[in-house]
Records
---
Amino acid sequence: MKKSFGAKFFAALTIFSLTGQIAWVVENMYFNVFIYKMFHATAEQISLMVSASAVAATVTTLLIGALSDKLGKRKIFICAGYVLWGLSILSFCLVREDVIGVLFPMAASASAVGVTLTIVLDCVMTFFGSSANDACFNAWLTDVTDESNRGTAEGINAMMPLVAILAVFGGFMGFDLNRRESWTTIFLIIGIGVILIGISGFFLIKDPSMKTAENQNYFKNIFYGFRPSVIGQNKTLYLCLAGFALFGISIQIFMPYLILYYTVSLKMDNYVFIMAPAILLAAVFTALWGRVYDKIGFRKSVLPSLALLGGGYVLLFFFRATTPVFLGSLLMMCGYLSGMAVFGAVIRDLTPANRSGMFQGLRIVGQVLIPGIIGPMIGSAVLKNAETVINDDGTVSFVPNENIFLAALGAATVLAIYLIPLLKAMKKRK
């Protein structure tokens, strides 16, 4: 029978998932805009920032996920982690050329120092964010759900990135992102908001009943998911993680440059009004698709998601007019978020009981590390000879082009080919 959830669970799931995703949207989409506009970062520097953050997220999730399993605690890591996460976001208020000039008077280039500081502080922020969200919030969500309701919960969880994008797009709409004062205000709002949500978790979140791993070696548990014996016992889980990595590579080829593509390449100053309906529709679709997963499972729900994603790529590659760009963005977002939902749900279903913390690091390897390194590298290579523009101060910036969607489609095609034998194997197991 399907297990029902209480109001506190839905409140905690919604608030913590949404707030975490808002912070990640600011990091994954707007930090790129921040260093592009404030410090004229290159595509290679943006790629480096995304990759460094992916490595930090993976290492953190491995360490903290295993620790939370050993202690049998999730709540304290989630709540305290969100508070520290918010404080780290506030530190970006100081990443400004005037402050850099005071702190590094001998620096030859304030822009170069600004890019470096952003990358370093991004990794610090990722440590706290991954401890709270990637390692412990996701482990908590796995602990408190089961196979009868995981698709429903994951559908809500997976739609939050789009809701977060909508909230951030709408919230940022009134800011001139070419002005440093705007960024200071943005970091203040996001940082304080994350801190307040962390505090609310002490009243909303309840630690699940779970067996602790206190008698086990902590350092061995960090690498638990990489043991050959564990891999052999959970082959389907690892095959699905590999598929998730391919899916993520496709997304990360274009995602770091998406807003820049809209604003710089397409010159869509009103992109928020165009994207908002697409985001809302995709969010509703994703929530419904999570329920579909509960009924028909991974095998029948993953390929439609991939087809939507590919259809969006095709429209975004071939067209630049408002209507087809809207339709392409809608299909891409529906495929992206519903794909995240079905991959996330099947990985939770296949995760061994009482080992969810240890396996969060493994999940991040597939979801973040591999895509976060390979995807931006491909995107950067595709944009290597992209058109450039001269800024008002004489510096040069690259202009993202539609080839990022063609490269993303190529990665999605590789995933589709990979899934054919995997889905057949999963069918035989049933």
---
Amino acid sequence: MQSVHSLVRGVCVFTVAFVCASSAIAQDKKKGDVKPYEEVVTKDAASDPGVFLVHRIDDRILYEIPAAELGHDFLWLVQIAGTQAGSGYGGTPAAERIVRFELRDDKVLLRDVRYSVRADTKDSIKNAIEAISIAPIIALFPVKAWGKDKAPVIDVTDVFKGDITEFSARAAFNAQGADPSKSFIESIKSFPENIETKVLMTYRVNKGGFDFETESWGPPQTALTALIHHSMVRLPLQPMKPRKYDSRVGFFTVGFLDYASQEQGVERVNYVNRWRLEKRDKNAAVSEPVKPIVYFVGREVPDKWKPWVKKGIESWQPVFEAAGFRNAILAKDAPSPQEDPDWDAEDARYSSIRWMPSIVENAYGPHVHDPRTGEILEADIQIFHNVLKLARDWYFVQASPNDERAQTMPLPDDLLGELLAYIVAHEVGHTLGFPTT
């Protein structure tokens, strides 16, 4: 007769074997979630090569991420590209952050990267900084298939239609949330350093009553639809050499806490925000830059004001020439759709002057910079239509006693054009990194 001990041991062995077999089945099922490439990226996919290989199948978007791009920092910008009157303006920024895609087994993590605390040193203090610098995981994507050279293929549709807080524009509309069933991906394009996506997003709102923008009463409104533009741009692989801020010279700055400082304590370091200008001829006193600063005059800028907008932009040329750069800043007309169907003012590769149909009497010049170094990467200046009224009224009050041209209304176009050029030059100054110009 088999002993009780042997019997129990046999049951234990059987149990272990059963558990192992169950685990193996679970593992096989887990591996089965990753399908053959051709079953995921089907023949119906419209594929667009670029920094990532982007596939579109109906209303689904797949990213095929080259292994070399995993772990790189990307700047993710969200802008309002279009909406209805009284609900914002095209070109208005809605969100901005640094992200990084990381592979973890058969999942890709999208992480929120921050540079507010640093210790660029070999000293052991670096370990302490790493312990408090864990990047939050914004989203997790199961790998659907493996592409060439082990490139993970992931479905990112919900990033654009799911209204993830980190990339949402709903705050700009004071909306309660998004309605994915009434939202559609309009277009997506992959370029060598960036991916541009436009989404027709519908938000749940509670609006009605008097609209101060249109100066009219509106009916109750529960839905608002806007065109939202996402730009994801790879940050420079070779960061620009930063320049420390000197309080004697006014600059916008990007700051961080430096725990590797030689000061006796934590040092607050500020780098100035500036464009990367490098001389083409390093030995010349004055040289053209390797890459000039280019501002495109938006397609929507009224034709008669375009020459004055350009004048305002290029009025900065003598300043740069005094600093050793000839033709450092240029104004160009935005190409027509026929000339360049891929050009887009919301594309984060381009700086532009945008014209806003609004009764607001103002203009503003924000810029986007690399948080690691302060390098200004692009800028989109917003000119509200009624800034013309502001310029007219100010000049009439201040200068009409001494300028006959300002003693009758309307002001001559050439005079108002000069005033507009001044306003543009002022806003360009902000986008060059100067708080006051």
---
Amino acid sequence: MTPPMGWNSWSTFGCNNSEATIKPVVDAIASNGMAAAGYQYVTVDDCWVGGRNSTTGQLYSNATTFPDGIQALAS
């Protein structure tokens, strides 16, 4: 067994993150053996939020830096 392992966007990009900067990292984790070694999480922990829906209260992604939405990035 391995401990929970992952990669955190803040540690690398701070608030200079975007869909375009995170996707290549995710692809690299999947293709370079890190996923097979136990890396299973990618945390986008800050600077992705564009606002909060006033009706539902749900957060939505910044349309400029995450044009496909956080759901598309997560899948």
---
Amino acid sequence: MSDYGVLSIVPSVVALAIALTTRKVVLSLGIGVWTGMTIHHNFNPLGGIFDLFDKGLFAQLGTKSNASVVLLICIIAGFVHLIERSGGMRSFAASTGRSLSSPRKAQLAVWVAGLGIFFTDSGNSLILGPLFRPVFASHKICREKLAFLLDSTASPVCVLVPITSWGVYIMSLIEKSAPSGNLSPFEIWVDALAFQLYPILAVLSVPLFIAFNREFGPMAKQQALLQCVGREVNANTETERERPSGEQDAPAFLVTIPLGVLLSSLAAIFGYLWLTTGGLPNDKLQVALGVSYGAAILSAALLLRASGGKSFAWISTTLFEGVGKVISVVVILLLAWSLGDVCRMLGTGAFVALAFEGALPPALFPAVVFLLGIFISMATGSSWGTYAILVPIAIPVAIQAGMPVPLAVGAVLSGGMFGDHTSPISDTTILSSMASGCKHADHVNTQIPYASIAGVSSLVAYGVAGFVAEGWLLLGAVALQGLLVSAVFVWVGRRGQ
């Protein structure tokens, strides 16, 4: 691989700058990918355009994991649109809203459900987003808040669980980087759990935010826009406009039965995978989601035909209408993946990491590794890519500096997670905004201030860890986060529901 030096960070910087200033995600990602391809193509702009499609968009669809995510998004979008057009979603929202009788209960329900769906980060948003959108609409909670809750219980939860693909992947990196000795990769991972400050704080922050019943920053503006300015609150305004005058909503069982089929199918397949493979392989998880949503679509179609009087022609047309609504999301994902590949081609992460290697005072090592992970992950939109770059560097440096290896691993994982959580080009960030039905730029802008409270608390704790690397630092970080949240909401927060 050629040494591109400082040029390797140009595509990410360009994409981030344009995204944050214009809020045009497709434009920013497209220009970022083209810039990187042009650099890689010996500064030939026409070659950059060619590679934008050849090595970028087309190549992404040729990858099994990427293609499966795209197909899953289309399948789920068709299913969601089908049950929304049936009118059953409104009936379901009304009945569910009565059981979740307050905005706080509705938000806590998302958090608890998110903890339960620990096996997949993308599945968290794709399953819970459509389910809770109408519930949040009935309680007049802005969609941006739902996107934040989904995003905060997706990757931050998965990275804390050893039996997921996240845990297996991280332990494989530790095994390749740590010398064989007293601790196995699993034991190092377990010891590093207490130092995964940001994921833990991000997950714990959700009930804290809910308890205060206040919003601040851009989130407060979105909530005020919903409540005071009169922005439509229906979870699917297109459906509301399309419903003929006087037509009654379909019964709620047109939603509850397909959802029951979905969840029971997932449980059966997961149980089968656990018994036959001893785990939940990531590629099989995607297959399980596809099969389960397919079964849910079939059950919904049969119910609509039998009790709703809908023809199969209407059902198929409605399904494809739903697919059409997520084409822009698919394009964003393809461009985000392409930018990640461009960063790997140019060696973005390696350049940033090596620029700091050997220049760190030992006491600042945990904090700087955390910040480095944030920068790389935010620039590339990939926490996994960040881990692959930093774990092999951080572990040897920690050993040489006399720092605990679990502390180094925890700092890497936390930094990569914070960057991924707040990056506008992260696939999980994109999926959270899509699943909640809000604009992607609005989700990014409203989430960053909330996530930054956990980020600041983590940074302070890592600064202390350079002098006293003890597990009780987590308790100190939790206490600090509580103080910061209290101060922010008391001073600048606006009361929610």
